[in-house]
């Protein structure tokens, strides 16, 4: 992992923590997970399909053409305060759009910001990130599923190819078919 990848992972984890705080249904109610909500019982495959569908809709909202990384949504352990962390899962779907110039990427971010509320997302942030380049970042929560989304327009000012990087995350859930 490069330093840039490490920073992106750290930023994504910080985002997930921050968004979890913004989407908590209620205050701590004594559930054993330590989360601000009681994780639903759901099959990992169903949540992967749900997150994949939401990611596809995000791509459509951009209304621009470019190359897209081919990574599928994937379930993994979800860190909670419970003694049996392995019974909790979360689905993550990182992907990017690239091979597009900055003018098109800017239009894509504008389209995304406009379309998110119309498509059931609550925008939590739309502004510069904490990087030196002050990349535009849109953070949103899907109001029905509580899925969280981060889209960052990396303009390539550091010599890398311009792109929009997405991270889409489900809430923690319990998969009855998953055994640790």
Give a quick rundown of the structure.
The chain is α+β, with helices and mostly antiparallel strands and 180 residues long. The chain contains three helices and nine strands. Strands 1, 2, 3, 4, 5, 6, 7, 8 and 9 form a nine-stranded mixed beta sheet that branches.
**Tally of DSSP helical segments:** 3
Shape: elongated
Low-confidence stretches: 1-31
Proportion of residues in extended strands: 25-35%
Q: Give the number of DSSP strands.
A: 9
Class by helix and strand content? alpha+beta
Cα end-to-end separation:
27 Å
Mean pLDDT across all amino acids: 81
What order do the helices and strands follow? HEHEEEHEEEEE
What is the domain tally? 1
Summarize the amount of helix as a percent range: 25-40%
**Estimated radius of gyration:** 17 Å
Give a quick account of the main beta sheet: strands, pairing sense, barrel closure.
Answer: 9 strands, mixed
Protein name: Lipoprotein
Notes on the protein architecture:
- It is a single chain.
- The chain contains three helices and nine strands, in the order αβαβββαβββββ.
- With 180 residues, it is an alpha+beta fold.
- It has helices at residues 3-23, 44-62, 102-115; strands spanning 40-41, 67-68, 74-77, 88-98, 121-128, 136-142, 148-154, 163-169, 173-174.
- The relative contact order is 0.21.
- The protein has one domain (3-174).
- The chain is elongated, with a radius of gyration of 17 Å.
SSE arrangement:
Elements: H1 3-23, E1 40-41, H2 44-62, E2 67-68, E3 74-77, E4 88-98, H3 102-115, E5 121-128, E6 136-142, E7 148-154, E8 163-169, E9 173-174
Parallel strand pairs: 1-9
Antiparallel strand pairs: 2-4, 3-4, 4-8, 4-9, 5-6, 6-7, 7-8
């Amino acid at each position: 992992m490069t330093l840039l990848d490490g920073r992106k992972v750290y930023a994504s984890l910080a985002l997930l923590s921050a968004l979890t705080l913004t989407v908590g249904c209620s205050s701590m109610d004594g559930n054993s997970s330590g989360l601000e909500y009681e994780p639903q019982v759901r099959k990992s495959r169903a949540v992967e399909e749900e997150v994949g569908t939401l990611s596809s809709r995000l791509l459509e909202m951009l209304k621009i053409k470019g190359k897209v990384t081919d990574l599928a949504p994937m379930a993994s352990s979800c860190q909670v305060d419970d003694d049996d962390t392995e019974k909790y899962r979360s689905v993550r779907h990182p992907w990017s759009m690239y091979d597009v110039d900055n003018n098109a990427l800017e239009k894509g971010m504008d389209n995304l910001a406009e379309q998110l509320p119309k498509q059931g997302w609550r925008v939590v942030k739309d502004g510069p990130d904490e990087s030196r380049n002050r990349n535009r970042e849109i953070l949103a929560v899907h109001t029905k599923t509580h899925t969280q989304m981060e889209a960052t327009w990396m303009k390539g000012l550091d010599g890398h190819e311009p792109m929009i990087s997405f991270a889409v995350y489900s809430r923690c859930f319990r998969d009855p078919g998953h055994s640790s």
